[in-house]
Amino acid sequence: MTDLPGYPSRRGFLKVSAAGLALSGVALDAKAQDAQPPVPLDRYEPEYLTADEWAFVMAATARLIPSEGDGPGAIEARVPVFIDLQLAGDYGTADDWYMVGPHDAEAAPDRGWQTPLTPAGLYREAIPAFDAWCAETHGAAFAALDGQAQDAALTALQKGEVPLAPELSPFFATLLANTKEGYFADPMYGGNHGMQSWVYIGFPGARAAFREWPERHNVKYPLGPVSIKGERA
Amino acid sequence: MKTFLKIIAGLVVLGVVALLAFILVPVQRTAPTEQLAADWAPQPGQGEYVMRAGDCAACHTAPGGEPMAGGRAIASPMGTIWATNITPDAETGIGGWSLDDFRAALVDGVAPDGTHLYPAMPYENYRFMSEEDIRALYDYLMNEVAPVRNEVAETELSFPFNLRFGIRAWNWVALRGEAGFHPEASDALQARGQYLVEGPGHCAACHSPRNAVMAQDGVHAGDAGFLAGGVVGDWGAPALHGPASAVKDWSVAALAGYLASGRNVHSAANGEMGLVVAESLQHLSDADNIAMAAFLKGLDGAVGEVPQELAAAPSGHAMPPEPADAAGRETARMLTEAQPDMPLGARLYLDNCSGCHFVTGKGAPEIFPELQGNTLVTSAQTAPLISVILHGASLPSTARRPLHLAMQGYADRLGDDEIAALSSFLREAWGNDAGPVSAGDVAAVRAAAPAH
Predict the structure, then answer these.
(1) Of B338, B353, B415, the CB nearest to A30
(2) Is B326-447 in the same CATH topology as B188-298?
(3) How are the residues of chain A apportioned to helix, strand and coil, as percentages rounded to the nearest 5?
(4) Are A41 and A82 in contact (CB under 8 A)?
(5) Is A33 touching B (CB cutoff 8 A)?
(6) What is the chain A residue with the closest CA to B337?
(7) Residue A166: alpha-carbon gap to chain centroid
(8) Which has the closest alpha carbon to B349: B377, B323, B321?
(9) Which among B338, B355, B415 has the least Cβ separation from residue A32?
(10) What does the pLDDT read at residue A209?
């Protein structure tokens, strides 16, 4: 499998997450169903993110996949924990990526990762720059804005209307991609808590055994998902 | 009174003399069981073939070590026994041994200096080898194996097992059956199979039970305990005939295929048997593996169809798994319905196992063992089943089936309660009829180091 620049390789993903999981203290023990509830997000101690960065990631992911409406939001799924653990590991350090220039912020998206910054470095530099723009434009750092202003600020960021240094240009796309990953990835990586997103969309998880089902049309698959660590929901 | 003391003294003296004689008088070696011509010489490759059939390397080649140079640790309840160097090195190997010395080791369990070998060396079985094979093997070890200087650690068992002269008494009790081969079957094919199974193959060393003195309880076709199932560490070596036979529903072709390749439509060789297939049986001729299969099937009567040769590796065509049979239909139906209120063990089977072993418990031919009627699943010894679930299993790569197949372990994915529920389910699913497994059973196996 070829690693797409800007996206974690499967191997790297596994390594980062395993390491993160081991460090985070939320490791699921052998008795998957008896696992302790994880530390609440407001008491979570990030592995990589600073307090301000954590506040931003909490606020931004909560707007990208909001808690209102159908299904769990990014906060219920603990997406910020996933992002923090990824940035703390070799995804964050672009451990096995080709990072030598030239980097061209104007290059087409299929040209790959076009910034000399690692993902962790990108978050570290982009968040204060974006917060400064928010303060200038909306009167406060992103996390302190109301929902409406946050949506407006993120929309501007997505459309490239926020003047950022060229090496920060992939920030919104990276943040959005990481948010989706944290929402749908296996819970062993810190996000998708309790497999809520899988339950929501009806994905049965890591069971890999549906031989009896392809021919059974119009019958709802009855079982909930199972995670890589064996949790059942 | 005086007379009485004299008698006592006399008895003591007699006892001491007898003990000294017991310890010091050399064991009389068994003579060759047939006279070969003085100029008899093995065919090219004959000795190596006997070495394969006898699986000498299983013990005498250490992991990563030089062939036959010894040094492998053989765990025993009495302590570690170190396999010796049987390369022709004069000082540390058997370079100084004569043919008579070599035969005495194989047949009588005695080294040239009179030291008794520990019966980890299966001379209980090798004593049935033909003089031709003994000579061919001697010739191979002396002339075709490179001499390796390798001083192997001295075996030091705890008292009283460190008193090797005691093995002499053990041999009086344990060694039954005259040396040499004594065919039971008139059929030449089955007789050849009997020879390989009883003699060089030393199948009884694991597959026969051990008696009160830890000797093989059945070394010869016709002995009551012969291949009636034994114990290897925490693992069971299943019965090969009788009502509990692991192979009673197998054809000769299926059994011979298992021996030759490590897998067949029913099962797959893992653990110790995987090593036997990899080191020994896959190197034997089709005819010999078919002969052993025919002999084993013949122990229970009808042999059934005997193939001329074994099928080559299946290729180019799919081998669809079998549908559930009458005994397995109810379990398969319940798993197929996949209702959330199914018992925990069944749910765990769906979540973890059914992708390969299928809702029928039939597995896939030549790939995934069937769990229905599988003696490892239903054995009274539950440790092997628990160990496979915890730590996975591994099939050897063989010339016929080069793919090295492995099942992953579930130690990280399932807790003790869950593995107990899953194991208990397996032991009563598809018509299996064995008792439940407790979480304590699982915890004990989890705490022990993985054996395989």
Answers:
(1) B415
(2) yes
(3) 50, 0, 50
(4) no
(5) yes
(6) A222
(7) 23
(8) B377
(9) B415
(10) 83
In a domain, A101, yes or no: no
Give yes or no for B413 touching A (CB within 8 A): yes
The reply to whether residue A209 touches residue B355, judged by beta carbons under 8 angstroms, is: yes
**CA gap A155, A152 in Å, rounded:** 5
Cβ-count burial B210-235 (b if 16+ within 10 Å, e if not): beeeebbbbbbbebebbbbbbeeebb
Contact status, residue B397 vs residue B278, Cβ threshold 8 Å: yes
Confidence band, pLDDT 50/70/90 cuts, at residue A32: very low
Nearest chain B CA: its distance from A91 CA (Å): 24
Give the pairing type, strands B406-407 and B393-394. Answer: antiparallel
Find, among A219, A115, A97, A101, the residue nearest to A174 by Cα.
A115
Q: Does B58 touch chain A (CB under 8 A)?
A: no
Separation CA B30–CA B134 (nearest Å): 13
The rounded distance, in Å, linking the Cα atoms of A117 and A108 is: 18
> What is the tens place of the pLDDT at every residue in A169-184?
999 999 999 999 999 9
A226 at interface of B, judged by CB pairs closer than 8 A: yes
Give me the total of CB pairs closer than 8 Å, taking one residue from chain A and one from chain B.
57
Instruction: Report how far residue A13's alpha carbon sits from residue B183's, in angstroms, rounded to the nearest whole number.
Output: 63
CATH code, residues B188-298: 1.10.760
The pLDDT value recorded for residue A35 is 59
Chain position carrying tokens 């009884």: B204
Q: Kindly report the pTM of this predicted structure.
A: 0.80
Residue among B348, B446, B349, B364 at smallest CA distance from B405: B364
CA distance B268 to chain A (A): 21
Distance between CA atoms of residues B339 and B345, nearest Å: 13
CB-nearest partner of A229 from B350, B359, B413: B413
| Tens digit of each residue's pLDDT (9 = 90 or more) over A136-167 | 999 999 999 999 999 999 999 999 999 999 99
Of the candidates B338, B411, B415, which has its C-beta nearest A223's C-beta?
Answer: B338
Burial of A216 (0-12, 13-18, 19+ CB in 10 A): exposed
Closest CA to B99 of B135, B132, B49: B135
Q: Would the CB atoms of A34 and B415 count as touching at under 8 Å?
A: yes
Looking at residue B21, its pLDDT comes to 75
Q: Give the model confidence (pLDDT) of B289-319 as tens digits.
A: 999 999 999 999 888 999 998 877 655 566 7
Q: Report domain extents, chain B.
A: 27-167, 188-298, 326-447
Of the candidate CATH numbers 3.40.50.2300, 1.10.760.10, 3.40.50.300, 1.10.357.140, the domain formed by B326-447 belongs to 1.10.760.10
Distance from CA of B258 to the nearest CA of A (A): 27
Q: Per-residue b/e over B26-35, b at no fewer than 16 CB within 10 Å?
A: eeeebebbee
